[in-house]
């Protein structure tokens, strides 16, 4: 038996063994998977459709058709219901700490503006240079409008932002530190507890973007004494394209903070239609306009599924999928010029593993043509996202073996170097 | 034949004749109507479910399940597609003038903030005291944050805001005039052209809330030279509970205006993930975060249906339904203490007619119990909303005859005076 074939068999057997031992394996049946041949490794961009969500959405559409305006008697509390499921089952938070609202970007704006307004004598927002673009744009806009300084910490593109780098940027003029818990490109996990503690030492507030961590890893909001957080539901929470985002505000801060977009869904007794804005004391004060009912049902259904599986089991499986991918990549892809662009340690990594290659964009197109959906992130990163509830070890095997085949045959060179509009 | 029975027959015959002559009557079949006995007179709060929307949503859910992230290759332009259908078929605007985004409240915030920033030497926002609460709250928040004066014009609760009242509030310090095109309580239509012209005379910009007018009456954005507008899609555009809102910015203003929430969907070549925010020149610069795909498909489907029927025919039928309702109400309900709380002239009224009664809340509960869904608006208004695409004259007849029966029997007195959370 030639060595390469031996290794193939070896990794495949390992994948099958790992799948057989996977306690989350039964959850794959809870998702709509119309094409079993497709290898989907982009659940960290858009999660799969849960069976329960498909059913719940069909039902919600017919509730609209039949109940009409009367449906709002129930729908009015949906954003809070989803928040409570997220708080208890996904984030380390208490009922009433979380609410579904708007998009992640709008929530970051509301919370960052509220935080800066609560620290009027301070003039600095700290973020890092590899934070997600929308986060950075939001802070740039706020800084320009309010005459604040946006202090940008240098982070390692593969290993994420370090506690030391953040600490060096902190002083008594910092109002807010805002970072992503899991870096969108590398999947690196920031040390939420240490960074939050460092921010608190200088009297600053923290705002964490949980878009890539909620539903993928443990998010220690309560134990880390996090002040504020926001995140999306369409990645690891499987709520569908453009589903509403969520936000978190620590209970003791809630009444002190006032967000700038004063809408009727934040108003006390909103249907009294009072002349003056008087926000609720609860987390509802961070709501603005009429929320999407379909979006809320999808988020509810997705959050319940994650809570049922348990975030501990999900995080463990995510780390194991990543470790397996790294091992296979080291053996098969490193010889073709791929290098790991994520932390190697499972505890420092979120739900995806990123590989660097100068021709990453061409490889990502070749993979799609070969029935594998990865994610490309500019300029030269291939992101392999794992949904612990539906991604099998054999999927990772299939994706990486096809990538190796492409690299060996050079078929990626047939694809354009020019990027598409959507990557 | 006793006189009252004669009159009953008379109004019913009239309703049947009007329905028989109604060129929009075939559109009723285009909606899902599971309960033919229900008399739904609240389409101005939440429009009915179109058959095409139900199908399109089912399809979109399965596209998510099957296409997964690849769906974004198409979804990325959806917000603009909906905008173009609204521009051409519903509003008097050009392709590229309108985009679907966020909620109405968030859009009002973005546009009002952008307008005030574009008139930095001016310090006043003008609105009216019966504008929708969320509009007023948004402006209160902006005024407080930016040290502006919110100048509140007195409007007539039944007849709406007059050109004269607005003109008296205008001077060279006014940055923005923002009003609702159709008043949420009375349905009164404001004189968009005259008020916009008056605002322009003093160098102010105008921002119109079209929530109650889009899909109900002609909205002369272009001919009135309106600067900015926003509105919702879940009322007369039938896009479902909490569907995304839209916004309009006049072409020549677009590059001058910069909205304050800098998100990645407003960014030029967003997937390049550039470090600095650099908004697109197009209407897309007013987008923020990832938009709801299901919401966009529902809005697209609803907007197409309205465009197909034609806003002229819709406005005419809406006015005729209102005229009929007023005639029946004058004859049957005035003796029981109901008075008209809307303009009498069809050209001055949007898609609903409002009746005043001190026991309006009890009547609205009694109507619901009798299979009629009206809308209650605090403190003492019964709103009867007509969806020209699905409301028949016989529905108006049925609703008002049951209201008369309730008033005659006094059954409304059996219902609580205390308001519910959602009205």
UniProtKB/TrEMBL annotation, chains A, B:
Family: Belongs to the kynureninase family.
Catalyzed reaction equations: L-kynurenine + H2O = anthranilate + L-alanine + H(+); 3-hydroxy-L-kynurenine + H2O = 3-hydroxyanthranilate + L-alanine + H(+)
Species this protein is from: Phytohabitans houttuyneae
InterPro entries noted in UniProt: Kynureninase, PyrdxlP-dep_Trfase, PyrdxlP-dep_Trfase_major, PyrdxlP-dep_Trfase_small
GO terms classed as biological process: anthranilate metabolic process; L-kynurenine catabolic process; L-tryptophan catabolic process to kynurenine; NAD+ biosynthetic process
GO molecular function terms attached to this record: kynureninase activity; pyridoxal phosphate binding
Protein name from the UniProt record: Kynureninase
Needed cofactors: pyridoxal 5'-phosphate
Annotated signal sequence range: none
